[in-house]
Design a protein that fits this description.
The chain is α/β, with parallel strands linked by helices. Helices cover about 45% and strands about 20% of the residues. The protein is elongated.
Length: about 500
């Protein structure tokens, strides 16, 4: 028959939910500590509880060695010969139990010390029991009762243990009263802490998932699957769902007829807003859905490896897409698992313009490389601060004429030279250069000189022919063949018809 002490130990074990052997071990350890303190010894002590009588016996335990030379510490070792004086059956390699008197000699201090040891052992055992009980239920939803409120923390009764729900684990919309029944998520179990080792939460996304599983039969039976949840407790929750049956609308199943299903969940969460979104494998389409109610103009994948998206919205939709204090885009990024940059159309346009201007490299080409510009003209341009072909090409004719020593004709010369230079860079044909006015005048003068030279040559030939005629006529005159008067008459006769013809 079990003793009264052992019955008390069993009662404590049932109350604390721990193994009775743990309590017995705690009692035996307490007796060992008290005995060591009383005897002030360094011997290896052991206590044994007699289940039937309820008596706890203390012993000094010594290892048995073969001969005296092997004894290193007399407090811990004994020879076979000495051991057999107390126990005839003692053998080398065994243990010798030497009884220690404890009954009636352990005082109040020793008893108090034993009590502390028992309480400490029981608390450690209780903590281990709680840990082993709930470590397999992390991220599960359990029913709890508000036991008490300690400042911002709420202490909950979850059955075999207490759970603590800190301020960060609560929704700002919720307040609790002692005795109220609520549903919480076990987020973690801590073993080496004072007080409750179970940490509960009502701000975890798993709570919303459990509520949808309870309210939506399609989710419970697996027809509709919850793919992602992003939540800011007390503010808004975004949940992405996917239907495995093409005939079942995932979003409609979660909303329910006239919104009855989702409204029930909203009431449980004390008015927290819930956005139900259809899940898509394509991140671009999923991002457009996740940013609702804002209307997205376009989505671009910036870096697929780093999961980076760029979203462009209309200027009027920018504030709606970002949300209050960035809440909408923050939840969308959590839902997708991608980094999202939101820009308005105007911001995107300015960014593109900056990128295009950055791509245009500013080359510097000296004026001397352009054929057609004389040294004097180059010096005039440099004196005016024009040192490159690019800056020269950007100038207007009015700006060029404002430079001292440059007139309209020179401006036209500069224009032709610059155009030919850029055409040669592009591989095209050079612009046909027109002759300047001065060259045209020179050509005209040259033509006139040629004409005058031609007329002069004709006159010279005529003079030569006239000069030759007297030479031929002279012999005739000398020979008396043609009289002088008849020659004059013939000349007059020849000129008369010419005058008539003219």
């Amino acid at each position: 028959m079990a003793s009264e002490l052992y019955n008390i130990i069993e009662g404590v074990s049932r109350e604390k939910g721990i193994d009775p052997r743990i309590v017995v071990s705690a009692v035996e350890d307490a007796i060992v500590v008290a005995t060591r303190k009383y005897y002030k010894t360094q011997e290896n002590l052991r206590a044994v509880l007699d289940k039937d009588s309820g008596k706890i016996n203390a012993y000094a335990v010594k290892a048995i060695v073969e001969n005296p030379e092997q004894v290193e510490d007399p407090n811990l070792q004994v020879t076979v010969e000495q051991a057999r004086k107390l126990d005839p059956s003692a053998e080398a390699g065994g243990e010798l139990l030497i009884p220690k008197v404890t009954e009636g000699i352990l005082g109040r201090i020793a008893a108090q010390l034993a009590k502390q040891v028992i309480f400490q052992k029981v608390r450690e055992a209780e903590r281990d029991t709680v840990y082993n009980e709930y470590i397999g239920h992390v991220n599960e939803v359990v029913n709890a009762t508000v036991k008490r409120i300690e400042g911002p923390d709420v202490i909950l009764d979850i059955g075999k243990a207490e759970a603590r729900m800190g301020r960060k684990e609560q929704s700002r919309l919720e307040s609790f009263a002692v005795g109220e029944r609520i549903r919480v998520v076990i987020v973690r179990v801590e073993k080496a802490v004072k007080g409750p080792g179970v940490i509960a939460s009502r701000s975890a996304p798993e709570l919303v998932q459990h509520l949808f599983q309870s309210e939506v039969p399609e989710i419970y039976d697996g027809t509709v699957v919850i793919r992602a949840i992003a939540r800011e407790a007390g503010e808004r929750t975004k949940i992405a769902v996917l239907s495995k049956d093409k005939d079942v609308d995932a979003v409609g199943a979660c909303v329910g007829m006239k919104g009855m299903r989702v409204q029930s969940i909203i009431r449980e969460l004390r008015g927290e807003k819930i956005d139900i979104i259809e899940y898509h494998e394509d991140p671009v389409t999923f991002a457009e859905k996740a940013l609702q109610p804002a209307k997205v103009s376009r989505v671009t994948i910036v870096d697929a490896a780093d999961k980076h998206l760029e979203v462009v919205v209309d200027d009027t939709q920018l504030s709606l897409a970002i949300g209050k204090k960035g809440q909408n885009v923050r939840l969308a990024a959590k839902l997708l698992g991608w980094k999202i940059d939101i820009k308005s159309e105007e911001e995107k346009r300015q960014e593109v313009e900056q990128q295009m201007s950055a791509l245009v490299t500013q080359t510097v080409t000296p004026l001397e490389i352009v054929t057609g510009l004389g040294e004097g003209l180059v010096e005039k341009l440099k004196a005016a601060g024009v040192n490159t072909v690019e800056s020269l090409a950007d100038m207007t004719p009015e700006q060029l004429e404002a430079i001292e020593g440059i007139g309209p004709k020179t401006v036209e010369k500069i224009s032709i030279a610059v155009n030919n230079y850029f055409a040669s860079l592009d591989g095209g044909e050079a612009v046909a250069a027109a002759e300047p006015e001065s060259a045209e005048e020179a050509a005209t003068e040259t033509a006139l000189s040629v004409e005058s030279a031609t007329e002069g040559s004709v006159e010279a030939e005529a003079l030569i022919s006239e000069a030759e005629l007297p030479e031929t006529a002279a012999p005739e005159e000398s020979a008396g063949l043609v009289p002088e008067e008849s020659a004059t008459e013939e000349a007059a006769t020849k000129e008369a018809p010419e005058d008539k013809q003219s």
